[in-house]
Amino acid sequence: MKIYKIKYIAIAFLSLLVVSCNNNDDTETMVEMGTDFSGTYAQRDQMGRPAVNTVFVSAASKDEFNVTIPSQQGAMFQSMFEANLKGLSPAYANAGDKNALGLDASTFTGLLATDVLNVSLDGKTTFYDGTNVLTGRALADDVITVELLLIFGGEDFTENAAFSDDHVDSNDKTFLTSFPYLAAAW
Amino acid sequence: MKKSKILAGTIFLAIIGLITIAADHIDAPATRGTSADISDFYAFQGENPNNLVFVANVQGLLSPTATATASFDENVLLEINIDANDDKIEDLIIQAIPRDGKMHFFGPFSASSTSLNSSVNEMATRNEVAISTYGSAAIIGNTNGMKFFAGPRDDPFFMDFAQYGAIIGGTASGFNNPGSDTFAGTNVLSIVVELPKSLIGGSGSINTWVETKVKQ
Question: d(Cα A113, Cα A77) in Å, to the nearest integer?
């Protein structure tokens, strides 16, 4: 056999080896071992109930609210929430004024300032359906109207009618009855 | 992607002025319009009443055009916190983080501390699902008794936010009837987890909240 032929065969054999090594890397070793989850991740945003930061936290404090752990939010933000609630709604203007849950401004904002979503594991999960209160948040719940009613509606949901319902009662697409429940993208 | 997203965001901000927006969409300066901006959070009983479902949405207000190229950020870790004893401190955590077209899930695992900083708990129960792409059928992961989804969906939130802004801004004296859904026709990037209630206490009540954390 001539020397150049041996060379070509050697090169061909070598590239085969290289190719198969790459294949191995792609299919097994790299995927199983190579996914890198290392590092430290620092908090940027958080949320429990809908619209709480938006409505009740003053502009200069919104970032701070997002990086305050819930167990410390009440002490740090309840008084700000109460001041903003009273500034926003005339339904708490008089001493003794309450919302339809029977909560006065101080008690209501004490509940809201700790921004966690309460969820029942035993039955219906809804933000508010007339019977169940804060047992979860379902996709179809009209949470904004519920919050507007609790902010503006007074003791029996009849006060400040112009502000207590945005009259958008449902989503623009129908939700699914099965996982993943949310409608397909537009 | 960036241009159309920025454009959509700019138009939106022009409409609503400088007021921040419900439910948690663009709620604060440091998160607004970033890949770590939570838009909404839901927790409800599943189709199977033995299960609970968590929905965490990020990157709200995506136009259909922007949605086609929108993606989860590999530098953003999302955590669902569960407080089982009403002390407002998390007892269980579910983590979700994207890598190479898949959303990886860790947990639920016991929380060791209530910290603003986290690392991924690679020792926890681990699941993954391919991230669904815009315009394709939803890809559903179903492993270890849990279901997983990650990808673009219609924003389930609805509100006449424009009118709310006008009221707060002093240019309107009330809501219109009927109102107009400011979020109609917009999408979010959604993470959905369904798991047996037995994995998070079984019965009684929990408190839950979602966090986004950015790699340092």
Answer: 6
* Selected residue of A53, A62, A115, A121 to mutate for chain B interface (largest B Cβ count, 10 A): A121
CA distance A74 to A77: 5
Residue B30 has pLDDT above 90, yes or no: no
Instruction: Note whether B216 contacts A41, CB cutoff 8 Å.
Output: yes
Query: What is the rounded average pLDDT for all residues in chain A?
Result: 88
Q: ipTM score here?
A: 0.89
pLDDT tens for each residue of A83-128: 999 999 999 999 999 999 999 999 999 999 999 999 999 999 999 9
- In this structure, the answer to whether residues A94 and A10 fall within a common structural domain is no
Total domains, chain B: 1
Phi, psi (degrees; rounded to nearest 5) at B123: -85, -15
Alpha helix positions (H), B17-155: 64-69
Is the predicted pLDDT of residue B13 greater than 80, yes or no?
no
Same domain as A147, residue A59? yes
Inside any domain, residue A120: yes
Question: In terms of domains, do A119 and A150 share one?
Answer: yes
Residues 6+ positions from A123 with CB-CB distance below 8 Å: A132, A135, B45
Residues A129 and A57 placed together within one structural domain of the fold: yes
Answer yes or no: are the C-beta atoms of B167 and B205 closer than 8 Å. no
Same domain? For A18 and A87 the reply is: no
Query: Contact A119/B134, CB-based, under 8 Å?
Result: no
Confirm whether A168 is domain-assigned. Answer: no
Determine the structural domain holding residue A115 and report its residue range. 52-156
A34 touches chain B (CB under 8 A): no
In which band, very low, low, confident or very high, does the pLDDT at A19 lie, cut at 50, 70 and 90?
very low
Q: Is the pTM of this model over 0.90?
A: no
The count of domains in chain A is: 2
